[in-house]
């Protein structure tokens, strides 16, 4: 999986942000993609592009309340910094949840989630160099809580509706991830361009 051109490590993929609320585009490449994407793309690749900075002011938000005491709040927006040459976009998301598995020994949620995701993007299109674009993207993600995949006792008659865990050992997963990309593009004309990521 790639977000804004950068590969997402496996640890972050299994415990990291999975919401697409601020995504602009999702592409699925089927079959071997190793030539362009590297050794980890033998079966294909998923490319996610987040919303780009724009040269007009934009703002959006989202609030979600769900089962298992789940709350999620997100906001994103941006606009021009220097005329039609430099624009920015920032987004933030906070999610809290008790998780859906209850620990009957410790009498506490087995896989709670408390996470925050922050992203900042800059787009530079200098007037003195027509056809050139530079994008700088920075993403910080932090989550603390139970491991996403945990044991649940399937011998319970109501396992599907009320999954439980009886382990006395605390289950924890803490992830801190920072990711940055610099995307440089220059249109040569005639449908050709140069790209460096």
Automatic annotation (TrEMBL):
Major site of localization recorded for this protein: membrane
Q: Which domain of life is it from?
A: Bacteria
Its membrane topology: Multi-pass membrane protein
Protein name, as recorded: Outer membrane receptor protein involved in Fe transport
- Cited SUPFAM superfamilies: Porins
Location in the cell reads: Cell outer membrane
Q: Which UniProt keywords apply?
A: Cell outer membrane, Ion transport, Iron, Iron transport, Membrane, Receptor, TonB box, Transmembrane, Transmembrane beta strand, Transport
Report residue spans for region: Disordered. Answer: 152-176
- List, alphabetically, the GO terms of the cellular component aspect: cell outer membrane
Which stretches does UniProt call biased (Low complexity)?
161-174
Which GO terms are recorded in the biological process aspect for this UniProt protein? iron ion transport
């Amino acid at each position: 999986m790639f977000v804004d051109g950068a590969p997402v490590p496996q640890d972050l993929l299994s415990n990291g942000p999975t919401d697409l609320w601020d995504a602009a585009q999702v592409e699925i490449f089927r079959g071997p993609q190793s030539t362009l994407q590297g050794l980890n793309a033998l079966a294909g690749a998923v490319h996610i592009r987040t919303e780009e900075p724009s040269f007009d002011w934009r703002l959006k938000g989202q609030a979600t309340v769900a089962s298992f005491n789940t709350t999620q709040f997100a906001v994103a927006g941006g606009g021009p910094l220097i005329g039609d040459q430099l624009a920015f976009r920032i987004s933030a998301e906070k999610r809290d949840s008790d998780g859906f598995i209850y620990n009957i020994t410790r009498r506490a949620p087995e896989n709670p989630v408390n996470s925050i995701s922050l992203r900042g993007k800059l787009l530079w299109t200098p007037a003195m160099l027509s056809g050139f674009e530079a994008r700088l993207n920075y993403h910080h993600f932090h989550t603390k809580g139970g491991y996403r995949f945990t044991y649940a006792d399937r011998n319970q008659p109501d396992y599907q509706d009320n999954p439980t865990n009886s382990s006395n050992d605390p289950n924890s997963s803490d992830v801190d991830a920072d990711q940055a990309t610099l995307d440089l593009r220059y249109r040569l004309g005639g449908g050709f361009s140069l790209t460096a990521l």
